[in-house]
Write a structure and sequence with these properties.
Nucleotidyltransferase, domain 5; single chain; alpha/beta
Length: 151
């Protein structure tokens, strides 16, 4: 049975949701109002058994994690400083791409507790570098100069 992971990019008015399967294929995308009931309704309507979802830390994150958890979802908050190197690597930085990056980070995690994206980045560097397309070499050089990757 396939496993599904969801990333939420939250702003005051709108939340972008992206769900990926265990192979990284996008299976669901939505832009909805930022409130727990809308998130719950959209995910239930999509109908995928989501193993874990996460959102980036921010002003709404504590409230959303508490309320969405109360609705029965397995949701965590990722420190924005930990995930920002991955999200910055995308060619087109949009809310939807950020939600996809968060979903990918949740999918790629290998520990029961999320201890920070930088702790797992080197293990999966080839996958993330390949997602970058034409900016791949420049991004790889940046990660190496920041000490995140080794050549």
């Amino acid at each position: 049975m396939a496993q599904y992971y969801t990333g939420l990019d939250v702003s005051m008015e709108q939340t972008d949701i992206v769900t990926v399967d265990d192979k990284g294929k996008i299976v669901f995308e939505a832009s909805i109002k930022t409130n727990p009931q809308s998130i719950d309704a959209a995910l239930k309507q999509a109908g995928f058994p989501i193993q874990k979802m996460s959102l980036e830390s921010g002003s709404w994150s504590h409230w959303l994690v508490k309320e969405v958890s109360a609705l029965g979802w397995n949701i965590t908050c990722i420190d924005a400083r930990s995930i920002s190197p991955l999200l910055a690597l995308k060619t087109n930085k949009t809310d939807r791409n950020d939600a996809r990056g968060i979903a990918e980070a949740v999918r790629m995690q290998s520990q029961p507790k999320f201890t920070g994206f930088l702790a797992i980045l080197p293990r999966f560097s080839r996958i993330f570098i390949s997602l970058l397309g034409e900016k791949s070499q420049k991004s790889q050089n940046r990660l190496c100069s920041d000490g995140i990757l080794t050549k």
